[in-house]
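User: I've been trying to design a sequence by hand for this structure and keep getting stuck. Would you show me what you'd pick, starting by listing the structure so we're on the same page?

Assistant: Good idea, let's start from the same input. This is the structure you sent:
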């Protein structure tokens, strides 16, 4: 994914995320991370780290991705 390079995510980290949470969830987390980082660069100091933390939360069942996507859609 080219967007992964935009946020400084290595190909290995992307592959690991796909293996852990699946392609579609990883893509949704990536899109959310990139959009948040582009809208307010000061909000997320390390987009790659933010992405990995979201994947970890998804693995733990603690990621409310639908809320982030809804919030971004409303703010757009």
């Amino acid at each position: 994914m080219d967007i992964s390079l935009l946020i400084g995510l290595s190909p290995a980290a992307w592959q690991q995320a796909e293996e852990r949470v699946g392609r579609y969830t990883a893509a949704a987390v990536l899109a959310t991370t990139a959009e948040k980082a582009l809208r307010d660069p000061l909000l997320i100091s390390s987009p790659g780290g933010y992405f990995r933390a979201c994947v970890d939360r998804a693995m733990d069942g603690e990621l409310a991705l639908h809320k982030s996507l809804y919030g971004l859609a409303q703010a757009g």
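That's my pick for every position. To get oriented when you compare it with your attempt: Helices lie at 2-6, 11-21, 23-39, 47-59, 65-75. The CA atoms of residues 1 and 14 lie 8 Å apart.
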